[in-house]
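Private note to self, pasted from the team thread so I don't lose it. Backbone tokens:
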């Protein structure tokens, strides 16, 4: 590897790419269904003092996914927000920080792995080889690009759900184990905070497994000659192994005291072809490069720069196989897959790199054209068919034009054109060059979807239309009894409708009652519905589960 091949990616361009990827999806939208809205409901209940901090509930219902950390972060942000800031906007602030933390920890973790002696390129006979620091920075840049390019990261990393809290903590643990042992305290701080965060975020078993994996790799690496950096003595390595084991044991003890152990491995009876398709697209384009890394480094799999991300990937894949939903478990393996993908780049031929570039160019350019054509059709009616299809699927939707969204989408599209022109030009090859187009294309498509298509997605995926239909039929908004509603529907009625909800029973407590479509005739009889008058039914298009029926209490 020559020195000119490891020149760093310009910092300004990399930071701008991260900003363009992180902010869209957190800004300007409503909470989406169902997990995004559900998690926000528990945060709001904590912030308003309607639930216990150690046992959050929403109208008496415990959370489906226990994650104290995610609910605490959102509730603290709501409580600390200045007056006038909407609660859902305030709750997203710590999750923006979690996504930024994920990107930063992936970069630094890969940087320290690339500094390992076993990961460095072979020295030239007459000099001119890549300097270790520059080589590590170039690989870290490539790994960050691979993470941004991963298709499965986009939506789940922009929701205020326990999955993002687990992702941020997993990245912290990855960084800590990659950088140990060092004299600086930051790897230890990252490791301890990450393990504790995983335990509080609903993944205590992962925390213990990651700690065990890290201790085992450190112990095995201590027996490998030439694997240590100059400052890593045998005594320091033994102390580090004991420290990692102690951290894992301490987290396990905390989990036991707080009674956070849960058995959720219920995904063995699944549709395996669907899982295979999910695995292929969710981890694209990192998984082919990661597989190539494992093959090319198959004789050095015990080295930490391969073994650590491979171990993280295997553990998260095992949890994805045994849990439902699988995509949120696969999300935790993306930083490790991105690290493995980066180590494939020094061994790729120019033909393979060119194939990746052309495939990426055609795929993302086609996606950009589709997004723009549909948006233009909705705004102007030309061509007519895309707009007709959208309005047929979403009756009642009214397109609107936003100057800020249009300007952001136009700027991103122009930047994509400049990036494509630069990539096809004649430039000296850089290690990260093959991942520029995948990362740029993924960031651009996410930006366009979250700007041009945001009104459509808000109408289709938020609860605002349903709640608006219910509130419009209330002549006296206030106390409402509910039965059969999901956690997300309860949270939506409380947030969007500002209604005081009560669990429905045989004896009326409020002048209004809302029933879900799931309520059976036998359940209606137990609720004494003969005392109530039907007012309206609010149906969501193409979603029968969101049908709500509003009743008014009949006069005596």
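Design output:
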């Amino acid at each position: 590897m020559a020195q000119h091949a490891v020149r760093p990616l310009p910092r300004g361009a990399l930071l701008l790419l991260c900003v363009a990827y992180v902010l869209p999806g957190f800004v300007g939208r409503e909470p989406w269904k169902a997990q995004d809205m559900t998690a926000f409901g528990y945060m709001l209940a904590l912030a308003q003092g309607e639930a216990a901090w150690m046992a959050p509930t929403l109208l008496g219902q415990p959370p489906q996914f226990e994650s104290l950390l995610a609910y605490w972060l959102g509730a603290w942000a709501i409580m600390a927000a200045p007056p006038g800031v909407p609660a859902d906007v305030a709750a997203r602030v710590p999750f923006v920080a979690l996504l930024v933390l994920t990107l930063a920890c992936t970069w630094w973790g890969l940087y320290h792995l690339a500094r390992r002696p076993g990961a460095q390129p072979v020295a030239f006979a007459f000099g001119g080889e890549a300097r270790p620091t520059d080589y590590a920075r170039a690989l870290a840049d490539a790994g960050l690009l691979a993470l941004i390019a991963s298709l499965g990261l986009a939506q789940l990393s922009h929701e205020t759900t326990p999955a993002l809290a687990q992702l941020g903590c997993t990245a912290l643990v990855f960084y800590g184990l990659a950088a140990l042992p060092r004299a600086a305290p930051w790897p230890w701080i990252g490791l301890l905070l990450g393990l504790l965060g995983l335990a509080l975020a609903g993944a205590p078993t992962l925390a213990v497994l990651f700690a065990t994996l890290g201790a085992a790799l450190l112990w095995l690496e201590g027996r490998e000659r030439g694997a240590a950096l100059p400052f890593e003595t045998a005594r320091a390595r033994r102390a580090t192994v004991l420290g990692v084991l102690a951290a894992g044991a301490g987290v396990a003890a905390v989990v036991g005291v707080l009674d956070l152990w849960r058995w959720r491995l219920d995904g063995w009876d699944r549709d395996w072809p669907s899982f295979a398709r999910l695995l292929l697209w969710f981890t694209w384009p990192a998984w082919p490069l990661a597989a190539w890394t494992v093959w090319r480094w198959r004789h050095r799999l015990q080295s930490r720069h391969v073994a650590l991300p491979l171990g993280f990937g295997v553990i998260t894949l095992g949890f994805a196989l045994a849990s439902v939903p699988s995509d949120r478990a696969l999300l935790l393996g993306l930083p490790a897959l991105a690290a493995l993908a980066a180590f494939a780049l020094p061994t790729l031929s120019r033909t393979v790199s060119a194939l990746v570039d052309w495939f990426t160019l055609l795929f993302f350019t086609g996606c950009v054209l589709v997004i723009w054509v549909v948006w233009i059709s909705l705004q102007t009616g030309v061509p007519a068919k895309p707009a007709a299809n959208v309005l047929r699927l979403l009756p009642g939707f009214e397109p609107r034009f936003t100057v800020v969204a249009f300007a952001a989408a136009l700027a991103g599209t122009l930047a994509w054109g400049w990036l494509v022109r630069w990539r096809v030009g004649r430039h000296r090859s850089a290690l990260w060059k093959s991942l520029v187009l995948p990362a740029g294309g993924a960031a651009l498509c996410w930006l366009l979807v979250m700007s041009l298509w945001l009104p459509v997605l808000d109408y289709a995926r938020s609860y605002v239309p349903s709640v608006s239909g219910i509130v419009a039929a209330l002549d006296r908004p206030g106390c409402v009894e509910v039965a059969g509603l999901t956690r997300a529907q309860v949270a939506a009625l409380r947030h969007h409708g500002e209604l005081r909800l009560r669990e429905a029973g045989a004896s009326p407590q409020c002048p209004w009652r809302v029933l879900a479509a799931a309520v059976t005739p036998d359940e209606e009889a137990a609720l004494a519905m003969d005392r109530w008058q039907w007012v309206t039914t609010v149906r969501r298009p193409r979603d029968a589960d969101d049908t709500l029926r509003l009743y008014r209490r009949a006069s005596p």
